[in-house]
């Protein structure tokens, strides 16, 4: 626990993680809030609700790099305040919008979603030393698990008691409060030893978006595709067994195991490569295909959960170390887009496999997707030129995509740092 005490003792770190947790839990729950509003408030079908959810998710996936570039150019506070204002307008309008307009408005709201998570990731890189960063990103990844475990269940519980329009307002209020809180803290996104890189000093995209960065993004996509597909396979398996009521317990076992795994991994003295962690996650997901009731799914889910937060934390670590300071916002935005895309595509892809085979096929497809992404990341990273040897006594970091980060003032440590709709 010493590593975590050191991280939380960094000035401004504890309040930043606390406020961003509020925003992140609300953002995690926004799809559920809109789904329930369309079904219960507008009396539409689940297919119609899925259209609004898809529009919101697509907007978030496309908006990540755009907001990242704006953060690089204008700083976090200006971007946070603008997006907070737009979220106020959207969520206040939700209960009075007809379905057709809500569809377009949801896309716009996703495109300009409050970038609390990308800002937090950049701030972690700037505020921590190389020796602290892996534990800090492990905490950030655990934060994602907690958001997933808390946000959607609270929305479901509240929707059963009060108007779904009021629930939507509550989710919007939490997003706004969290985003405004991060803006008020205005965390630094550049370390003291980094040159403040403005737009004039931005490196060319081809100079930093190379095979190592692409490898990290591919594995981010593969990780959330695996997780999204696993969620669907759990529900399908329990439905076939007539045990759907146990789904919450199975997912909870998965989430608790992920929190434990993230905390243990962040305390280790040596990191593991992202491709290795993702490959192991894919492998341990495969045996769940043999489970036929909630008990064995809990066992399988706990085993896979132990590797979930560590895998996502190393992805965040890799992106933060491979991106030059002047484009760190755009790189973090690309990471968020890759995570969102994997989450959005996982359910339909794995759902198609389940329809063509059996519920167990969903676990097999999810695990194989993780293995394929891990192999692709490993092969891409091997195409990178040999890194310059670091100064004597300065350890070469590990943990991204079996890569060594390009030499930079802050690339000499072993950092690491999210999940399902934990994106």
Automatic annotation (TrEMBL):
Compositionally biased residues, Low complexity? 409-423
Q: Which InterPro entries match?
A: MFS, MFS_trans_sf
User: What is an example of a Pfam family matching this protein?
Assistant: MFS_1
> Which residues are listed as membrane-spanning?
21-40, 46-67, 79-112, 154-185, 214-238, 244-265, 272-290
For this protein, the record's Gene3D superfamilies field holds: MFS general substrate transporter like domains
Specify where the region named Disordered lies, as residue ranges: 382-423
Which PANTHER family does the UniProt entry name for this protein? MAJOR FACILITATOR SUPERFAMILY (MFS) PROFILE DOMAIN-CONTAINING PROTEIN, PTHR23542
Any idea what this protein is called?
MFS transporter
Assigned keywords, A-Z? Membrane, Transmembrane, Transmembrane helix
């Amino acid at each position: 626990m010493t590593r975590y005490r050191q991280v939380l003792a960094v000035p401004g770190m504890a309040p930043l993680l606390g406020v961003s947790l509020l925003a992140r839990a609300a953002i995690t729950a926004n799809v559920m809030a809109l789904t329930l509003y369309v079904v219960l408030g507008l009396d539409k079908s689940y297919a119609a609700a899925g259209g609004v959810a898809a529009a919101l998710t697509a907007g978030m996936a496309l908006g990540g790099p755009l907001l990242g570039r704006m953060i690089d150019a204008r700083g976090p506070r200006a971007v946070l305040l603008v997006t907070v204002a737009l979220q106020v307008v959207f969520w206040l309008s939700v209960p009075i919008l007809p379905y057709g307009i809500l569809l377009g408005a949801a896309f716009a709201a996703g495109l300009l979603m409050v970038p609390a998570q990308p800002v937090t990731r950049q701030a972690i890189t700037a505020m921590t030393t190389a020796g602290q960063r892996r534990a800090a990103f492990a905490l950030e990844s655990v934060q994602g698990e907690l958001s997933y475990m808390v946000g959607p269940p609270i929305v479901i519980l509240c929707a059963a008691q009060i108007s779904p329009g009021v629930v939507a307002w509550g989710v919007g209020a939490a997003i706004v409060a969290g985003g405004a809180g991060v803006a008020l803290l205005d965390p630094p996104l550049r370390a003291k030893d980094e040159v403040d890189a403005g737009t004039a000093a931005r490196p060319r995209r081809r100079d930093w978006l190379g095979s190592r960065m692409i490898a990290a993004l591919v594995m981010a996509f593969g990780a959330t595709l695996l997780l999204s597909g696993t969620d669907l396979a759990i529900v399908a398996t329990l439905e076939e067994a007539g045990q759907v009521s146990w789904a919450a317990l199975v997912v909870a076992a998965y989430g608790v195991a992920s929190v434990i795994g993230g905390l243990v991994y962040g305390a280790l003295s040596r990191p593991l490569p992202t491709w290795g962690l993702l490959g192991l996650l894919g492998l341990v997901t495969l045996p769940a295909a043999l489970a036929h009731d909630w008990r064995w799914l809990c066992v399988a889910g706990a085993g896979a959960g132990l590797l979930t937060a560590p895998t996502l934390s190393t992805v965040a670590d890799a992106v933060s170390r491979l991106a030059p300071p002047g484009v760190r916002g755009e790189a973090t935005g690309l990471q968020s887009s890759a995570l969102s895309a994997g989450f959005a595509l996982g359910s339909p892809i794995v759902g198609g496999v389940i329809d063509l085979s059996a519920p167990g096929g969903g676990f097999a497809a999810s695990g194989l997707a993780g293995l394929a992404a891990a192999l692709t990341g490993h092969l891409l990273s091997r195409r990178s030129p040999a890194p310059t040897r670091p100064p004597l006594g300065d350890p070469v970091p590990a943990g991204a995509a079996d890569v060594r980060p390009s030499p930079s003032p802050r690339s000499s440590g072993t950092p690491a740092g999210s999940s399902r709709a934990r994106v």
